Amino acid sequence: MPSTRALIHAPWSASKVSTALRCPRLFHFKYIQKIKEPEVMPEARIGKAIHKALEQVLMGTPEPEATSAVRAELPSEIEQMRYDNLAIGIPAFVTRIGQFRRRRRVARQLVEYSLAVREDLTTTQFYSGDAYFRGVLDLGYLFEDDSLALVDHKTGARIPGSSIVDQLEGYAVLAASAFRHVKRVWLGIHWIAERAVEWSAPVRPEEVIDRLVPDLLDNIEAAALAVDDGPRPNPGSWCDRCSYRGICPASNEIRYEPVEWYEDDED
């Protein structure tokens, strides 16, 4: 059973867990004090724009129309140029997914699909008060052979040696709970900048139960423990990309190191 401290901060999500483990002070800003982001990083804005364009294209909007409409919403020419460099890969991804779909008979497409489970891993509504863990699938395909493919879009740099399962295990748990007839789950990461999709070996229901569920619950407990002592800062390289850096003393200290002054400097 979840601890009281884990239940207090529910519902959890993959991003909420990673935020707690990375920096408890950031967690308090976002999820406890619920302070609106004082500063939106260009990387976050561009990432959201690419996700929005992909969503519209996958839902049937012609690619030129979708990408140009989303591009116009970005506030500066520099961000639009960075968006263009990423958006070039959208047609290739759509073509690749089309080929993937033709090799298998698709029963259902899931785009920006919301899922949630209670603490006992039974399904519930995304915004329900009893939701314990929840997430939004970027893209999923249910096939007629009772298999499921999940794809997560990533706009950041590809990290060599990173584990696909570690990044998508929460979504696999959610999907396995929602679609209990599924016999295997394929997990894929769409590295947008590299125009590549990296797939894992298929995960079977017994592996979800025996490995992914315990790992997910352990991560939630570790996150809850990390923030239990209050808003401790954990400064690091990520401070430069934090939307709350302007109001975080620890971030200011690491970004603006004091310069020692000596009387001899006057000469």
Describe this structure in words.
The chain has a single domain (4-116, 125-252), classed as Lambda Exonuclease, Chain A. The chain contains 10 helices and 6 strands; from the N terminus they run αααααααββββαββαα. A hairpin with a 4-residue loop joins strand 5 (184-191) and strand 6. The chain is an alpha+beta fold and 267 residues long. It is globular, with a radius of gyration of 21 Å. Strands 2-1-3-4-5-6 form a 6-stranded mixed sheet. The mean pLDDT is 89. The chain is 45% helix and 17% strand. Helix 2 packs across helix 3, helix 4 packs antiparallel against helix 5 (63-71) and helix 4 packs across helix 6 (77-87).
CA radius of gyration is: 21 Å
Distance between the termini: 69 Å
Total count of strands = 6
Largest sheet: 6 strands, mixed
CATH topology: Lambda Exonuclease, Chain A
Alpha-beta content class: alpha+beta
- The CATH architecture term is Alpha-Beta Complex
Side-by-side strand order of the widest sheet: 2-1-3-4-5-6
Number of H/I helices? 10
Mean pLDDT: 89
Share in helix: 40-55%
The backbone outline, from C-alpha atoms, is globular
Give the helix/strand layout:
Layout: H1 4-8, H2 14-22, H3 24-32, H4 42-58, H5 63-71, H6 77-87, H7 90-103, E1 106-117, E2 123-124, E3 133-143, E4 147-154, H8 164-178, E5 184-191, E6 196-199, H9 205-228, H10 249-255
Parallel strand pairs: 4-5
Antiparallel strand pairs: 1-2, 1-3, 3-4, 5-6
Helix pairs in contact: 2-3, 2-9, 4-5, 4-6, 8-9
Keywords for this structure?
about 270 residues, six-stranded mixed sheet, Lambda Exonuclease, Chain A, 10 helices, single chain, alpha+beta
